[in-house]
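Problem: given the chain below (379 residues), write out its structure.
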Amino acid sequence: MTTTTPHATGFTVAEEHAMAAALRAAATGVRGANPLVGAALVDRDGRLVAVGHHRGAGTDHAEVDVLHRAAAAGATPERIAAATMVVTLEPCNHTGRTGACTEAILAAGVRSVVHAIGDPHRAAAGGAHRLRAAGVEVRDGLLGDAARDLNRRWLTAVGTRPFVTVKVAQSLDGGIAAADGTSRWITGPAARADGHRLRALADAVLVSTGTVLADDPALTARRPDGSLGDRQPRRAVMGLRPVPADAAIRGHDDRFRHLPTRDPAEALAGLYADGVRHVLIDGSPRLSAAFARAGLIDELVVYQAPVLLGGRPAFPDLGLATLDDALRFVPDEAGGGAATRFGPDTRLRFVPARRGGPTGSDAHPATDPVDDTVDTTKG
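Solution.
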């Protein structure tokens, strides 16, 4: 069988290889409000023309990236138009920070598209219909299970709530503050700078009223020199106690939101209604524990310093009685790998283990109120 001969599934060997390449590229992207998406172009002879992927909110989508890469590699417009575009997710039909991918595909003259899975996001869906209406051949289902697994947590959240990242800075023994409450600084400057980069990627940073009252954080995204970064997240606090009028989190703009609730799901619903699609919980231990109990952590980022501290744990009051109740996570190799060194510190990235799988459950009900008293980020 040649690379251009269709299988019984209706896809060629070349298309399967191209989709596998697109999935590998997708996995190098950034988790958050948007899915991990890769794309590839394969010509009529079964040769791979180019591979591209999405690099995070506001950057070119995978379809546009692969078209640019093909042109940069010297592919003529005619070769690009005659190629099949293979994409890990149905091309979007929505104009947001970037244009609709369907229009970029049509503008390039591509007449054949294969995608792994459909887009469940109402605002972006309909790409396959738009392309078919314009005369493009569209096929779906190639390596769909692998594509769904890559974006399992995003597919769970999309269209209903923001994607939730929890960030923790801790010692080797899981401490986020000493017994006397001191916590500046557990990690070094390189790890802290990466933490601020993470803040800048999020739509909103969320803490509890207890953290605000105890530490008065500003929750800004800053450069290593202390200046404000170009992109700033919204600043949100949840809890029933009032936020002081002079609290640093209020800032001097309209990007502050107080969510008068102790229910994580209710807080996420309020943020989603405000247009927030990616929430970062940064340095609020009881809040992080509440989201963990509710099964509402989509990504866990741990900055671990090579020190023994004791003191206060990163996830207090999880309410777990036995090892069988443990909330289990698995290393996340997307975005450059599960482990990255920043000077003496190590950043570890995890996603919840599949529910009911051999490594345990990833969701438990939330029962305890949220009321933090420690913030490891101090602004």
